[in-house]
Amino acid sequence: MRIVLFVATIAAIALAGYLAITAFFLAHGAAAILRVGSPGGERAAAETPADPMTLGYRGDPMAALSLPFQTVALETPLGPAKAWLVPAAGAETGRAIYVHGIAGAREDGYRALKLLHEAGWSVLLISYRNDAEAPADPSGRYGFGLLEWPDLQSAVAYMAPEDTSPGVLVVAESMGGAILGQFLAQSPLAGRVRAVALDSPALSFKAVIGHLAAQSGKPLPAVVAYVAQLLVPWQTGLDLSKAEVATVYQTFPGPLFIAHGTGDRLVPAAPSKALADSRSAPTVTLWTGADHLGSYAEDPAAYGAAFAGFLASLPK
Predict the structure, then answer these.
(1) What's the pLDDT at 23?
(2) pTM above 0.85, yes or no
(3) Residue 280 and residue 139 in one domain
């Protein structure tokens, strides 16, 4: 019996040590993604691509798509943040705001901008805290939407200055989906958003941690992820248990478009599919096999058709 107890004790100590060490490094990696200047954000290209439809392209809307634009300064809680306003070419069908993901840029929205402009929309491509042309957050971190949503509120106030203004469409990608979700949950201006379009949305920090753990190939990934979730707030100073926005989108009463690839190595597609299945309001989906934010590149025609159909379905 003593031998059995000894062996069980040693096994328990080994298991606890494995979980502690593995979870610590997982939490450290997750915290690094949220650190400004970390290479672990949106996919970084080795070279700046020449095609404005490719992630990583840099250049203003005139250089990219020959579209006239204005640079405007949005007054955010931390100070002015620059945005590009691309007006509709003719009669304005509607107004849209583009919100990029972690460590991304306004230019990442050119795929959506092209489709929106063709459909007669005016589009505001925003920067927010920690972007090159926006104030730095004092924490030195991205907040998975918990910190950034007031900056989106400034953009909504600009595009829909009154409660009686026509509602806006917000197009959000990756962590932009988390930012928009927090805005819809907390902002007094949430009612000014009439429709939402999401691509590879980060709906749940918990799901991202679990996804990273599962991909590590290490034993007991669910338990490791659970322990890591307890450690990440200690490493970041953020209560990331609040970074869960799927329910907000589930109850959003307006039309919603969502595209996500099952090959996404950063943000799992399962929460997006569960969200789409749970909604009763109009919902248009596009499921691909692409990696993170890669659905457009995988099949531009299919993406364009799905997004154009979504825009056409919006109430005038």
Answers:
(1) 61
(2) yes
(3) yes
